[in-house]
Design goal:
The chain is mainly alpha-helical. The chain is about 80% helix and about 0% strand. It has a domain of about 140 residues: MetI-like (MetI-like fold), CATH 1.10.3720.10. The protein is globular, with a radius of gyration of 24 Å.
Length: about 260
């Protein structure tokens, strides 16, 4: 009897993923070459790659990437350094302090960051600090609120059991509270990292003379469509790499969750 080849659902899923990407890039390459408005306003991938190569050889791309990453990392790191301790404080046993402060923080978290652009420029000018402050503002809220949620979601029985065995305050925090709250913390960090790149581009379009956001704005003003698409691709790739790094770090640090009885 002839045997029938078996294709696993996993292999089929991977094939579909790859084929959808290939079809997307093929359509992207062919559509602008059909002429008309698409040819005017959309650069095909081959032209974008050539533009990226030229920017890389000239050193312009590395300069813009370095400057943008520095701004994003500075704003994101500052937000994490403030949001994480405050999140543990508000999510802990300070209920009165939490009831007073949380409504104010919730209100501030809903303020549209774009409406604060003029305020940041007035306070800090068009210096690096104003751009980093904008990134700091949008990053702090997802990190803070997810940390609070993670701390509040800790099983009280874990804390009581540790205390009953005579665990001190510092060991209790590092061995029980921090590991239990880590999934929520990493969720906030990933959201904050994505938001940092989103705000970075907007911040660099205002009062900047370098950076990927400025490169996008300058290409738009001068109608340099290939350069516009090249900068957009670089921004997307950097965002994906940063998210992958955080996901990898989360898996390494929280690998024990996969083997726990509740997961």
């Amino acid at each position: 009897m002839p045997t029938r080849a078996f294709v696993s659902p996993w292999s089929l899923s991977r094939w579909l993923d790859r084929s959808s990407l290939l079809l997307f890039f093929a359509a992207w390459e062919l559509a602008p070459r059909a002429g008309g408005l698409l040819e005017t306003f959309i650069a095909p991938p081959s032209v974008v790659l050539m533009t990226l190569w030229e920017l890389l050889l000239s050193g312009e791309l590395c300069d813009h990437v370095t400057i943008s990453l520095g701004r994003a990392i500075a704003g994101f790191t500052g937000a994490a350094l403030i949001a994480l301790p405050l999140g543990f404080l508000l999510g802990g046993n300070f209920r009165t302090f939490e009831r007073i402060v949380t409504p104010v923080l919730r209100f501030l978290g809903q303020v549209n960051p774009f409406s604060l652009f003029p305020l940041f420029i007035i306070l800090f000018g068009i210096s690096e600090l104003s751009k980093e402050a904008m990134i700091f503002w949008v990053c702090i809220w997802p990190i803070l609120f997810n940390t609070i949620t993670g701390v509040k979601g800790i099983d009280p029985l874990l804390v009581k059991s540790a205390r009953s065995m005579g665990t001190g305050v510092v060991p209790l925090f590092f061995k029980v509270i921090l590991p239990a709250a880590s999934p929520g913390i990493f969720t906030g960090l990933k959201m904050g990292a994505g938001t940092a790149f989103f705000m970075l581009i907007a911040a660099e379009m205002i009062g900047a003379s370098c950076g990927l956001g400025w490169l996008v704005w300058n290409a738009q003003i001068n109608f340099q469509i290939p350069k516009l698409f090249a900068a957009t691709v670089v921004i997307s790739v950097l965002g994906m790499i940063l998210n992958m790094l955080l996901v990898t770090l989360e898996r390494r640090l929280l690998g024990w969750l996969d083997s726990s009885p509740n997961h």
